[in-house]
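Anyone up for a design puzzle?
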């Protein structure tokens, strides 16, 4: 008998399910476990911006978080349970909740951040000493980072061997069903607040006023995106995902980031559709490999917790970044670099909270290699403006583009934004959507307006430097400058 059972006269107390980056009811091992105990369930979420080391969410993430919490509250309510929301340090809030309610168990899904893991360790020790069961479950990754290691016992630092090893493990477990009903806890709970009290949504101005149509909320919204993907873009995903004007993207990344959907659900959904002949083997393999890349990033974060602040490859610590020109960085952020594919991507980001994956690479490469701005500057901007700003994937991908990360693209591989635009947006549909001031230019000049004759510019109403900016840097010169900077940093044999 636990201490809390003794205090309650022997009757088992309620079970607390502590939601974090797992805002769903289906395939939630902690909720599944708590529901199976037959006790009242207390669902709790703590908005923690006080615990040292836990990174405060960006503005776009906060908006998506608000939508996801509201949807989770509605889903839980239909099952007989209420979502209790708290502000403050996680450890204090969860300890107080357990003490006040006489809980006999606290359950949650694991995360990979160092500060989050330390909070979990301390809470487990506290509850065990207090006679309260505390258990964490893996539900947001396909494999435990602490156990998924190389033959020598170390972490994987290269993706391809990681992906091959993951495939050798066989199919992941099947998703767990959502509880049909939950026992409600009828006791008093103090300290909780309403969702609006978290101030997650923008007010003046409301820059996200059209986002609700773009990002339907909750598990139903994730399902809607997934079904839409299979209707419009799953066939041909392997190739089409590189073309930003096409529909060969799932747009599920923010739902994965906040655990509104699990990787197990997506994995097996793909397998079922593959068996039904609704998606080809090549497209399935590519989609699953993208799930595995997310997994790889989180494994890196687990083993290298300073991934967002320190070069994975120390040889880049002395790289001569040029961060002094705030005006140049501001032009990149606003989509005013003079390179249409880059500008289209940055404007898509600002308008929708999302950027197509191919264009993310081009825009990130432009900042780091054309402008020689430290990758951490771009990582922080994406963190604040992406609804899918992921604590592991965001820094890992920025380091990959910068050439200083795990299994990174070589630094000397510098995207030519003109060629990238002409190859992946040949008809200009993407650029014309987000850079309308040059939409009337012929395809031949759309991705390099400065190459157009003055007569065509005038006919199309384009005045470089006024209606649309001239290029902030010359590609050829910028490429040479980047390679020269690399030679200062790395031995010739590394280039």
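Challenge accepted. My sequence:
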């Amino acid at each position: 008998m636990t201490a809390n059972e003794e205090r309650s006269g022997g009757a088992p107390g309620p079970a607390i399910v502590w939601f974090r980056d797992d805002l769903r009811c289906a395939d939630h091992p902690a909720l599944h476990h708590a529901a199976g105990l037959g006790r009242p369930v207390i669902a709790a979420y703590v908005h923690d911006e006080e615990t040292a080391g836990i990174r405060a969410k960006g503005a776009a993430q906060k908006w998506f978080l608000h939508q996801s919490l509201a949807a989770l509250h509605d889903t839980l309510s239909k099952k007989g349970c209420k979502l209790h929301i708290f502000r403050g340090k996680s450890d204090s809030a969860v300890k107080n909740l357990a003490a006040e309610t006489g809980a006999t168990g606290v359950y949650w899904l694991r995360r990979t951040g160092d500060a989050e893991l330390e909070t979990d360790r301390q809470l487990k020790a506290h509850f065990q000493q207090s006679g309260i069961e505390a258990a964490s479950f893996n539900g947001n990754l396909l494999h435990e980072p602490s156990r998924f290691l190389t033959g020598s016992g170390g972490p994987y630092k290269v993706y391809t061997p990681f992906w091959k090893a993951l495939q050798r493990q066989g199919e992941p477990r099947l998703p767990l069903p959502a509880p049909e009903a939950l026992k409600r806890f009828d006791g008093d709970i103090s300290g909780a607040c309403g969702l609006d009290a978290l101030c997650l949504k923008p007010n003046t101005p409301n820059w996200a006023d059209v986002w609700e149509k773009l990002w339907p909320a909750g598990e139903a919204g994730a399902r809607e995106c997934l079904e839409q993907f299979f209707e419009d873009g799953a066939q041909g995903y392997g190739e089409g995902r590189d073309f930003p004007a096409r529909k060969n993207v799932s747009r599920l990344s923010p739902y994965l980031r906040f655990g509104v959907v699990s990787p197990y659900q997506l994995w097996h959904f793909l397998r079922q559709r593959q068996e039904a002949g609704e998606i080809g083997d090549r497209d399935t393999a590519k989609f699953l490999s993208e799930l595995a890349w997310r997994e790889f990033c989180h494994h890196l974060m687990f083993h290298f917790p300073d991934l967002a602040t320190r070069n994975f490859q120390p040889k880049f610590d002395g790289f001569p970044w040029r961060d002094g020109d705030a005006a140049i960085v501001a032009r990149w952020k606003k989509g005013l670099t003079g390179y249409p594919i880059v500008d289209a991507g940055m404007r898509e980001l600002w308008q929708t909270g999302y950027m197509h994956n191919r264009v993310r690479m081009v825009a990130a490469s432009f900042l780091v290699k054309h402008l020689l701005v430290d990758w951490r500057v771009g990582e922080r901007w994406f963190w604040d403006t992406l609804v899918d700003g992921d604590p592991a994937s965001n820094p890992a991908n920025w380091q990959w583009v910068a050439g200083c990360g795990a299994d990174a693209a070589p630094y000397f591989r510098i995207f030519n934004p003109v060629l990238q635009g002409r190859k992946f947006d040949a008809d200009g549909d993407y650029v014309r959507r987000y850079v309308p001031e040059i939409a009337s230019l012929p395809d031949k000049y759309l991705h390099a307006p400065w190459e157009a004759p003055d007569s065509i510019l005038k006919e199309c109403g384009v005045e470089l430097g006024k209606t649309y900016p001239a290029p902030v840097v010359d590609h050829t010169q910028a490429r040479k400058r980047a390679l020269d900077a690399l030679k200062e940093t790395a031995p010739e044999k590394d280039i």
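A detail worth pointing out: The chain has a mean pLDDT of 95.
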